[in-house]
Design brief:
By secondary structure, the protein is of the alpha/beta class. Helix content is 48%, strand content 12%.
Length: 413
């Protein structure tokens, strides 16, 4: 009997060991088979970051089997290149247009044409979402969230000043001139990387030149840029606005969310703000310029900012998961949840629920085209900085009709 019990114990021990080995193997296999997605967030725009993190959290709730790793700001562009080239697992990057252009020229980003087709992006989203993601004839990114730049006015405030409500860009600028003369500043609330001068320069540029001609010459040197016709005319028009005192050094003041709330309460007659703040502009006294004087050969020149674009490296290790993620976050359902948070989306179906002044903002996005991309997003940082310095000189009364050539020489000396 003892012998039988001894044999049974031995069999049980072996059986237990086998179960443990099998369980360990199953756990290991399950861990290895688990879907992964490594996302790098390279954007300084707090509004875009908020939307991106919302979409990622939404995806994680519906896909608990996917291990999503979010790496915040990568740093300099060279760091991004090093990260990709070292074979570090980067399945997706959220970045700005300037970095997108530079990375695409280095050949490290995938052409997302098939992704656009499979998800019907071109039909379901506004054209501007693709305009920001296109470099040359290829799509290297998809816009995350668009912001139309809106020219607003407070009817009650203007009535006190005995100034008529502006109904067009031209008339809004005329009101701005009158406001300047009274020593009043207009708050401007855009994204951190766009100031008043950069916005106005881009607004003028959209009616004067083909913005994609600038992009095609991206960081190509002084002589290449000189071949583009009409750029000096942008400086000329900016000078005319300064000379006529439509814009001055003191026309605008940097604002924030509180500035929008104050404007809504009647504290200032004019405001320049992005559509992100639509929910804060709900008073009956709020007016919005609908007509941007679309008399340009380039069509609508309503400026749109898209500060973050989704792109996929060519060596992404989890491409299938990345494609599933894109399909999910760009679905009508997820975009509808963004609109429920009172943020205007780039999705046509989701935006059908937007009301009030937001309807006009949506219409502006619908009308926007390639020339609605801000010019400053199609030139490298060194050239952008020197353009802005040149604009400040013009506001100081210094203009000589050679601004473009001089700016190029300074940037590429």
């Amino acid at each position: 009997m003892k012998k039988i019990l001894k044999e049974l114990k031995k069999i049980c021990s072996i059986f237990i060991i086998l179960i443990m080995v099998l369980n360990l193997s199953a756990c290991k296999s399950g861990k290895e088979d688990q879907k992964k997605l490594n996302i790098f967030l390279d954007t300084s725009d707090i509004y875009s970051s908020e939307v991106i993190k919302f979409m990622i959290d939404d995806y994680k709730k519906s896909n608990p089997d996917v291990e999503v790793k979010l790496n915040n700001v990568l740093g300099e562009k060279s760091d991004i290149m090093d990260t990709i080239n070292k074979g570090t697992e980067v399945d997706m990057i959220f970045t700005n247009r300037n970095t997108l252009i530079e990375l695409s020229k280095k050949g490290v980003l995938s052409d997302l044409y098939d992704t656009y087709e499979e998800n019907n992006i071109s039909d379901r989203y506004y054209d501007i979402m693709g305009s920001y993601g296109r470099v040359g004839d290829k799509y290297y990114g998809i816009g995350v969230i668009p912001y139309s730049v809106e020219l607003l006015y407070n009817k009650a405030n203007l009535e006190k000043l005995k100034i008529a409500n502006p109904t067009s860009l031209k008339k809004w600028l005329d009101v701005l001139k009158q406001i300047n003369a009274k020593g009043m500043k207009t708050p401007i609330v855009l994204t951190d990387d766009v100031d008043a001068d950069g916005f106005l320069f881009s607004l003028v540029a959209s009616k004067v030149i083909n913005i994609h001609e600038i992009e095609e010459s991206y960081d190509s040197g002084e002589e290449s840029y000189k071949k583009i016709k009409g750029v000096q005319d942008i400086f000329k028009e900016f000078n005319s606005l300064a000379k006529d005192k439509v814009i001055t050094k003191n026309s605008f003041e940097l604002g924030n969310k509180q500035s929008v709330i104050n404007f809504n309460n009647g504290d200032s007659p004019l405001l320049v703000a992005i559509s992100y703040f639509n929910s804060k502009l709900n008073g009956s006294n709020i007016g919005i310029v609908e007509d941007y004087d679309n008399n340009s050969k380039f069509g609508s020149n309503i400026p749109i900012i898209i500060n973050s674009l989704l792109s996929v490296p060519v060596n992404a290790k989890n491409m299938d998961t990345a494609n599933d993620f894109i399909k999910y976050i760009y679905s009508d359902e997820v975009q509808a949840r963004i609109v429920q948070k009172e943020i205007i989306s780039g999705n046509k179906v989701a935006n059908s629920k937007v009301s009030g002044t937001g309807k006009i903002m949506v219409e502006h996005m619908y009308k926007a085209n390639d020339n609605s991309v801000l010019l400053i997003y199609n030139i490298p940082e060194i050239l952008k900085n020197n353009v802005l310095l040149t604009l400040k000189k013009i506001l100081d009364g210094v203009y000589n009709s050679k601004e473009w050539d001089e700016t190029l020489k300074k940037s590429y000396k």
